[in-house]
Structures are given as C-alpha cells and as structure tokens.
Amino acid sequence: MRPIRTAVPFLGALTLAALFSAPAYAQLKTPRPSPGATVKQTIGTTDLTVVYSRPGVKGRAIWGTLVPYDKPWRTGANEATDFTTTDDIMVEGKPLPAGTYAFLTIPGKDSWTVVFSKQKDMWGAFEYKESEDVVRATVTPVALSESKEWMEIAIDPVTANTAELAIRWEKLKVPVKISVDVNGKVLKDARAAIAAAKADDWRTAWGAANWAFDNNASPDEAQQWAAKALATNKNPRTLQLSARMAQKAGKQKEAAAQMTEAIALAKADKDFSKELTAMYEKSLAEWTAKK
User: Fold this and answer.
1) Tell me, what's the pLDDT at 18?
2) Do residues 78 and 163 touch, judged by C-beta distance below 8 A?
3) Structural domains of the chain, ranges and CATH numbers in brackets
C-alpha cells in the first residue's frame, strides 16, 4: 500500500512563491503640495500649451524671499514649466520656432527676464544654462489689486493673432506678449493644399479663396483660387463667392448675374440649404437696391 502524500507542503511552497513574487510595497499615489495644471489656447491654427505646477502662498513671503530676485526660477514648482507652440511665433517681438521649451523666469524688483530654453524636462532650474536660451526678453511686472493664493499661468486676453501669457501670483502679474502670423500660416498651408489637390477637387480652392476674401489676405491669390474653384465645378457656393468678389470690385452687373445663377442652382438642388439660399437672395436684393 502506497503512503498517502499530503498536499500541504506543496501549497505552502506556492504560498511562499506568491509572497516573494508580489511587489514589496504598494504603488500609492499621493497628491503633490503644488498641483499640476495645463493651459491650452489656439491662436488662428497655432496651439499654445503650458504645463506647470501651482504653488500656494501659504502665508509665506514670496518675491525676493521664497522666490529670490536675480536668480533663474522654474516659474512654478516641481519640474520646470513647459511651453509648447505648434508653429513659429513671436515672443516680445523675438522669433520662437515651433517646439517645446522650458519656460523660465529671472524675477527682479522692477523688471523680469523671461526665458524659453532648449533645456526641457529639467527638475527646477538647478541645471539651467544660459547658453541653451532660444528667446530671452525683459518684461515689466504689474501689481494685482487682489492677492492670488495659487500661482496661475494664463493665456489671456487673446485676439485673432495675439495673446498675453500672464503669470499671476500673490499680488503680482507678469505679462508676456505673443503674436502669431495667422494669415501667413494659413496662406502657406492653403498654397500647399491647393497644389496637392486632385483635379476634380473644387472645395479646397473654394475654402482657401473664401477665407482669404473674408480676411482680406492676398486678394490676387484669393481671386485666382475662386476662379479655379468655379472652373472646376460651377455650383451655388462657387458662384456666390465669385459674385461677392465681383460686387466688392464694383462689377455690379457681373455680380448680380452670378448671384442670380447661384440662386437658381440652389433652388434646383433639393439638398442645398434653404437658409443659404435665403441669404443669397437677401444679398442680391441689397445689391440691386443700391443701383
């Protein structure tokens, strides 16, 4: 008779193996004293993004004490602040190529130096080297009427082609002027898109011409693109754009004829927007009333 073997030693070995293969400690994530934040703003077709950490005042003296004067600062807490632009821009009148940079500052009593450095992914500003600067500019801080407990970086206010990158903390605001050549960027993209478009693609040329006309950008190219779209496909949209251009150029008879044809084609197309058709009719009525 064979002896009965017990499974206990085997199970014990399995238990020990499981214990030794398990992590020595749990991966516990705890909140940072200075929480992270991300700010994103689009100017034209250019995206600007700032990734930073927000320290609090917490009853401390900030300027010249916690944040010393005349020394590089990470402009926040933890890792150095990152600034990303998807296109070339101007910062305080100086060119900054598309890319990601460390956004550092050197605070002063009366003026600040703002720095966009190639040394991204730094912890703090301990490894900062001035030789890695891409843009360095001097800006003037302004007083805030109310104290701000948590440091904030905002991209505000904005216009169609400008923005203010503002650091706000305690009772101080540090504004940095940014400008984007929106028209130049869109025109460059439009030229490339039209050159790459298929022979039967009228929408690309029409879209570029429509935008250029509305924004008074490169009128000669806008005229050429509108003519190309109309020659490729005569439809309510291409006729209406051509009519608008003729009307602006003072060619009232040509404008009225093209808009009349656009309205006729729009009404014949059961899928064409009735709202757009009504807009075309309103424009034609206004033009003819001015005679």
Assistant:
1) 47
2) no
3) 36-179 (no CATH), 182-289 (1.25.40.10)
